[in-house]
UniProtKB/TrEMBL annotation:
Entry keyword annotation includes Lyase: yes
Keyword Repeat: no
UniProt record similarity statement: Belongs to the LarC family.
NCBIfam families: nickel pincer cofactor biosynthesis protein LarC (TIGR00299)
Keyword entries, A-Z: Lyase, Nickel
Protein name: Putative nickel insertion protein
Length: 409
């Protein structure tokens, strides 16, 4: 039996909430986890779990106790944390995953602050309880050996106070980690997803799976704060998938890719300046367009023009139609329902000689068949190293191709 885990992020996600939900779902041997945590060199760490109520939902809340007071610090360099992990007696898998999670967050911090990865100095995330959050999350992910999915990612508003001063919510490093994911903004002045939570989401996104199977267990992980606006919990749903639900080889071509229904908005324009069309294109993407294509066409009476083709989700078609009518000269738009076939996608970090780059991975069934570097990551690295972007891009392509060949994606 294969295992699939789905996360319902009702109150967002933090490291302690992820662990608490796993405990509530019966996935964690707490005594075994404590032994692992005590090997990190922080002292006789204990995992304290208790049942609490957040909003209308009861679940588990966890905290850590018992570490050596001499180890108490709220800031550590990435290299210090990596050394602690390397010198522990954690399993090789947990070591690799914990280190990867810290490096994912470290790269986000480095990008946000414009410094080299080696110079990253964690503040709140360098504290003992945050380190334990990362190790515990990595241990759970390794132990369950599951595929993952998750629902809408809520993010709050306002600001929070940190060692860097007053920063917006979501925190810049958190926002960097969540690039490429769909976010739902909530009018609540709180941090729904912490940097640790964002690193967990980025990690499990590299182990994608389909939300189906026999429901085996559920667990609720509770955050520390109790809000009137929402239940500050994450729900973890455990499903068992047998041969009938998740075949090792797809039984038909339809099982090899994903299908969905979208809308294509099409019109031809011959009386709008080209630079204004470029502005319209930007406005369409800002309004949620999936794709915008402009192509030259020969219109009636021999007039040259442009065909504007916009692909969008059905529920966004009205908003995008408004953009087209308000900001172009067209009097009519053709609305065409379109069936779309696409590869299942995930994001993964790859190491290059110049730094880490996210790649978009395309899956044909259970096989990763292509990986494309994210341009913005390459651009930022190119600026940092004073190199052409295509040099960084090619380096990232080579690194991704090597991982594909070795079956590590």
């Amino acid at each position: 039996m294969a295992t699939h885990i789905h996360l319902d992020l009702l109150g967002g996600l933090a490291g302690d909430m992820f662990l608490a939900a796993a405990i509530d779902a019966g996935l964690v041997d707490v005594a075994g986890l404590q032994r692992e945590l005590q090997s990190v060199g922080l002292g006789p760490v204990r995992v304290i779990s208790e049942r609490v109520v957040r909003g209308a939902i009861e679940g588990v809340h966890v905290r850590f106790e018992g570490w050596d007071p001499a180890m108490e610090s709220d800031h550590r360099h990435l290299s210090t944390i990596e050394a602690m992990i390397a010198e522990s007696s954690l399993s090789d898998g947990v070591k690799r995953r914990t280190t990867a999670m810290f490096r994912i967050l470290g790269q986000a911090e480095a990008t946000v602050h414009g410094i080299a990865l080696e110079r990253v100095h964690f503040h709140e995330v360098g504290a003992v309880d945050s380190i334990l959050d990362f190790v515990a999350a990595a241990w759970v992910i390794e132990e369950v050996d599951a595929t993952f999915s998750f629902g809408e990612i809520p993010v709050g508003s306002g600001t929070i106070e940190t060692a860097h001063g007053t920063i917006p919510v979501p925190a810049p490093a958190t926002a960097k980690l969540l690039e490429g994911f769909e976010l739902t903004y909530q009018d609540v002045a709180t941090e729904f997803v912490t940097p640790t939570g964002a690193a967990i989401l980025a990690t499990v996104a590299a182990q994608p799976g389909k939300r189906q199977g026999r429901l085996k267990a559920t667990g609720f992980g509770c955050g520390t704060r109790d809000f009137k606006s929402h239940s500050n919990v994450v729900r973890l749903v455990v499903m068992e998938q047998g041969a009938g639900e998740q075949p090792s080889a797809p039984s038909s071509e339809a099982a090899r890719w994903e299908r969905d229904e979208v809308v294509q908005l099409i019109c031809e324009i011959d009386d709008l300046q080209p630079e204004l069309m470029a502005a319209v294109e930007a406005q369409l993407f800002d309004a949620g367009a999936l794709d915008v294509v402009r192509e030259p066409v020969l219109m009636k009476k021999g007039r040259s023009g442009e065909r504007l083709s916009v692909l969008c989700e059905t529920e966004l078609s009205e908003a995008l139609l408004r953009v087209i009518f308000v900001h172009t000269t067209t009097f009519g738009v053709r609305v065409v329902p379109v069936s779309r076939v696409k590869l299942r996608r995930s994001r993964q970090l790859v190491e290059t000689t110049l730094g880490q780059v996210h790649v978009k991975v395309g899956w044909l069934g259970d096989e990763a068949i292509k990986a494309t570097p994210e341009f913005e990551d390459c651009r930022l690295l190119a600026e940092r190293h004073h190199l052409p972007v295509h040099t960084v891009y090619l380096e990232a392509q080579r690194a991704a191709a090597a991982l594909l060949t070795e079956g590590q994606i």
